[in-house]
Amino acid sequence: MNILITGSSGFLGRHLSVFLEQKGHNVTKLNSSNVDLTNQQSCENIPKINYNQIYHLAAWTRAGDFCEHHQGDQWIINQLINTNILNWWKCNCPTAKMIAFGTSASYSKNYELEESNYMLGLPLDKYYSYAMSKRMLLSGLQSLQNQFSMNYSYFVPSTIYGPNYHNDGRQLHFIYDIIRKILDFKYLKKEIYLWGDGNQERELIYINDVIECVTSLSNITSNKIINIGSGEAISINNFAKMCCNIIGVDYANVKYDINGFVGNKSKVLNNKLMKLLYNDELINIQNGLEATIIWYEQNNYKSS
Fold first, then answer.
1. pLDDT of 80-91, one tens digit each?
2. What is the tens place of the pLDDT at every residue in 233-242?
3. CB-CB contact of 82 with 140 (8 Å)
4. Is 2 within 8 Å of 51 (Cβ atoms)?
5. Measuring CA to CA, which residue among 116, 174, 158 is closest to residue 267?
6. Which positions ≥6 away from 21 have C-beta within 8 Å?
7. What is the reported pLDDT for 70?
8. What would the CATH number be for the domain defined by 162-202+232-265+284-300?
């Protein structure tokens, strides 16, 4: 197949590109260095190919409290990105299937995190702008499908982790922050302070699981929103204990900064629809953390 990927230089985009190329597909990779999706004219630089699928991963966001401090910029930039790629899709390649990604941050804390509730209520204030831009992306997909019968799949993943995450010093997703701080203690003797009280719960899904699940489901479903997650709630302190055991650090050295950024107290996606449609086993959390820690340690610290 001919496949177009936006956001190809991101964590998911890099892994997905390799996976699809290894499957023998012809993959065209877009990122900010070759096509600026905030500029409609720049979209004319997208290679004119009869694409079968378009994976839309591009978004302007980062982990931690980034969303809270860039709400106006996030709204404008992400609206431009989404509007321009959907308009290009409609005008240039309407028979291609659009495979787009939402965010679990779009869910309101007042509803169960299941697909039918994705557009209900208000997201947390800290994520409001980014979360609403992702809801508008889904609205755009639905509108194009309703008027022009263009097909899409819309996936909402929980926090994705695994090796080969970005390594450029920017703020990290929580699991990499935990890993980095514990390794800093091991190698640099820095004290370990994690944000919150440790009781907040999170869900992880391994990068390979996301790719295999999404590429499988995108071939058998259309015009649906599907959560992609393990369905398992694990507290931050238990993540820290697992990482300490793997790294070889006594968990008693972990301290908590109760004034630090926390986000949702608990965030676990309802994955019943995913499990109904996708039967493969997910990678064990222990094995996934071990692979991630080995990569992170080898790329940031002297070999032990």
1. 999 999 999 999
2. 999 999 999 9
3. yes
4. yes
5. 158
6. 27
7. 73
8. 3.90.25.10
Return d(Cα 256, Cα 236) in angstroms, integer. 10
| Tokens read off for 209 | 């699981």
The listed CATH number (3.40.47.10, 3.40.630.30, 3.40.50.720, 2.40.100.10) that belongs to domain 2-159+204-228: 3.40.50.720
Residues 290, 246: contact at Cβ < 8 Å? yes
| Beta strands 26-29 and 53-56, pairing class | unpaired
- Interatomic CA distance for residues 24 and 109, integer angstroms: 42
User: What's at 281, amino acid-wise?
Assistant: E
Q: Is 188 exposed, middle or buried (0-12, 13-18, 19+ CB in 10 A)?
A: exposed
Task: Assess whether pLDDT exceeds 60 at residue 303.
Answer: no
HSE, CB side, 13 Å, CA atoms: give it for residue 148: 17
Domain ranges of the chain: 2-159+204-228, 162-202+232-265+284-300
pTM of the model: 0.91
Query: Is the distance from CB of 180 to CB of 296 less than 8 angstroms?
Result: yes
Cβ distance 233 to 283 under 8 Å? no
- Rounded to 10 deg, the angle between the 236-247 and 285-300 helix axes is 60
pLDDT at 72: 82
Residue 66 pLDDT greater than 80, yes or no: no
304: pLDDT confidence band, cut at 50, 70 and 90?
very low
| Tens-place pLDDT, residues 175-217 | 999 999 999 999 999 999 998 888 889 999 999 999 999 999 9
Q: Where are the alpha helices (DSSP H) in the chain?
A: 11-22, 66-69, 71-92, 128-148, 174-188, 207-217, 236-247, 272-277, 285-300
